[in-house]
Specification:
The chain is α+β, with helices and mostly antiparallel strands. It is built from 14 helices and 18 strands. Bound molecules: 4-amino-1,4-dioxobutan-2-aminium adenosine-5'-monophosphate (4AD) and magnesium ion (MG). The site of magnesium ion has 3 residues, from strand 17.
Amino acid sequence: MKFINVNDIASYIDKKVTLKGWVYNSRSSGKIGFLMLRDGFGIIQCIVEKNKLGDEPFSLFKTLTQESSIKVKGLVVKNERALGGFEILVDSFEIYQLSKDYPITPKEHGVDYLMNNRHLWLRSKKQHAILKIRHRIIKSVRDFFDNNNFTLVDTPIFTPNAAEGTSTLFETDYFDEKAYLCQTGQLYGEASALAFGRHYNFGPCFRAEKSKTRRHLTEFWMVEPEIAFCNIDENMKWAENLLVHIINEVLSNNSIELKIIERDISKLQEINGPFPRLSYTECIELLKKGNYDIQWGDDFGSPEETYISAQYKKPVIVYGFPSKIKAFYMKRDPENEKVVLGMDILAPEGFGEIIGGSEREVDIKVLLDRIKEEGLNREDYEWFLDLRKYGSVPHSGFGMGIERVVAWICGLSHIRETIPFARTMTRLNP
Ligand code: 4AD
Ligand code: MG
C-alpha cells in the first residue's frame, strides 16, 4: 500500500492516507489519544478515538512507547492550532515494533550522554533540523559552483605530503611507505584549475587537532574552489557571493527548521554584500584596544577571532597576514614582502573563521624557499612545482569548512552537533 510523507500532507486534505514512521510522543486521556508521528520528513499530530477504533485497538494504542515503529491510516484534516497546520484522524494503526526503554527521554540529558547516543539522538527534533539545514547548505554550495561553470573534481584522501603544516597530520601505513590523510584538497585543486579553469572539490579533510575546542573536529568537510586567472580581490568576491547565496537558500527553504532550533533569523536576514574588509594590522590595533596581549606577527586564536567577529553584523574579510603564520603556497604581497595575499573570513556574532584562502605563489624560486623553510621534502612537491613550469597563471582559491558554516547559521556554540557523527580528539564513537 502506498504511503505518503508528512511534508506532502497539504496535498491530501480531506483524503484518507497511510503514514509510516515512529512514535515521537503519545498520551491519552479518557477516550482520546494523541500521537505525534515522526516519519523523517516531519512530525504530525494524530488523533486516536476509542469510539472509532474499538476497545482493543485503543488499549493497544496505550501500550505505544517512544520510538515504536508504526503504520497509521486515517483522514487528513486542517487544524490551525496543530504543528504544521494539519492532523490525522486515525482509522487504524499497525505496529512494526514496540520500542523498549528508549535511552533518550523528554527529560534533560547531558551532552556527553547524548553524544554517546548520537545514533539515536539524530532522531530528535532539534538535531534533525540542524542536519536538514546542513543538507541545504551543502546543496546550495554545490548549486552555486555548478551554476557558475565550476567543475567538481575529486581530490585524493591518501596523500604523500603536507599542505597545512606538519603538526596536524594523520599518518597511516601505506604498504612500505607513509601516507597522510588529506588536510586539504588544494594542491590537487590547483592542478585541476589549470585543466578546467574553474575547479571545486568537496570532501572530508583530516587534522590531528590536539586541542579541545568548540570549533575543531579531526574529520570535517571542506569545499574548495580554485580559480585560474583570479586575483585575491576576485577571490574575496567569489567567497562573498557564495556566503550570501547560502544564507538566502537557507532562509527561503528552511523556515521550519530555523524555527525548531529557535534561530534569531533577523541576524541572518541582515547579511548581504559587500562584507567589511579589515587588514591584519587593523585587527591587531582593534585587539590591543580590546586589551588583548598581542603583537604584530602573532596568530589569532579562537578568543581573538571571536572578539573581532563580534564587532560586526556581517562576515568580516581579514587580509594581509604575516607570511610567517600562513601556509607556504600563499603569494607574497609584491608591495610588502612581509605579508601574504591571503584572507580569512570570520562569521559574525563571534563565530570566528569559516573561510581561509589566498592568491597562490607562482614564483617557483619563492615556493622552493618556502618549502625549505617549512622543512618540507622537495621531492614530494615536484608535481606541484610542474604547475609553475607549464603555463603558470595567476590563480586563487579558498576553503570553507561546512561545519563552521552550519554552526554559524544554526547559532550553535559547539561544532559537535553540526556533523552527523563528530570525530574529535576524545571521540571516535559511535
Ligand atoms: O584555513 P584552512 O586551514 O585553509 C586550507 O586548508 C586551505 N588549503 C583552503 C584553500 O585555500 N583551498 O581551512 C579552511 C577552512 C577553515 O576556514 C575552517 O572553516 C575549516 O576549513 N577548518 C576546520 N573545520 C573544522 N575543524 C577543523 N579542525 C578545521 N580546520 C579547518
Ligand atoms: Mg585558516
